[in-house]
Specification:
globular, 245 residues, 13-stranded mixed beta sheet, 1 helix, 2% helix, mainly beta
Length: 245
């Protein structure tokens, strides 16, 4: 349990009352980094009937206390009607128990604004990492009436100078009325040295990609270890902060 004291940057009015039930995932501390996140989306072009791919790059960072910043480029029209690509920035701050979201640069009407929502100051912390839990050192299967899950170890691989551990997860549903078995294959690579950071995820559906509306893969590139600029984890000067509480 943690109890951050209120301050000028995190006033008491942002926090809901404490209760004994609020839980959240424990932060990943002591493993700071910054990287370029490359997201590749594959989708069916209804006009051509072919599967096409579009990639976009954004920024991601985490500091040594577990604060994390994610950005997503979001096309929109500015005040003149021109299409621009500002980033929607999301910051999770486990030290203050708050989350921020804002647009950068600000291209909407009115004053630059950031939204903040905070959890109670006292929390129950849960340690969990779903990707580490999926990792296997030898093949295994998990069967149920509806699906067969197979897990295969892929060994180790370098992403730059960062070593990652890989697992292939194949999910095969029970045969449909058409007799088809459509597998979904997910390959994940995570880095134990960076507190189980997920470095790459690729998804494939052999023979059925044209029947899936969209598939999203991602990979972290240009990974730099070390503390990012602390200013990345709080709304910029000039932004009005509005609390959702």
């Amino acid at each position: 349990m943690l109890r951050p004291p209120p301050s000028a940057r995190f006033p008491a009015s942002w926090y809901p009352p404490d209760n004994s039930l609020t839980s959240t995932e424990a932060p990943q501390t002591g493993a700071p980094y910054s990287a370029t996140l490359v997201i590749t989306s594959r989708f069916l072009n209804l006009a051509t009937g072919k599967v096409e791919a579009v990639s976009r790059s954004t920024f991601q960072a985490r500091d040594g206390d577990g604060r994390r910043r994610d950005e997503v480029a979001t096309p929109r029209a500015d005040s003149s009607g021109k299409i621009v690509n500002p980033h929607v920035v999301s910051v999770s701050d486990p030290v203050s128990h708050c989350r921020f979201q804002w647009m950068e640069p600000w291209v909407a009407p009115g004053k630059p604004t950031a939204a903040v929502t905070c959890m109670p100051r006292t929390l129950n912390l849960i340690s969990q990492n779903i990707y580490a839990e999926m990792t296997v050192t030898e093949p295994r299967e998990v069967r149920s009436p509806a699906v067969l899950d197979r897990f295969e170890p892929l060994g180790r691989r370098l992403f730059g100078d960062l070593e990652a551990v890989g697992t292939r997860h194949t999910r095969t549903p029970a045969k449909s009325q058409t007799g088809e078995n459509r597998e979904l294959i997910e390959e994940i690579w995570y880095a134990p040295d960076l507190k189980e950071l997920l470095v790459m995820k690729e998804i494939s559906a052999p023979g059925a990609e044209e029947k899936i509306s969209a598939i999203h893969d991602f990979e972290l590139k240009d990974i730099h270890r070390g503390e990012p600029n602390p200013e990345l984890f709080y709304p910029p000067d000039g932004y009005q902060i509005k609390s959702g509480n």
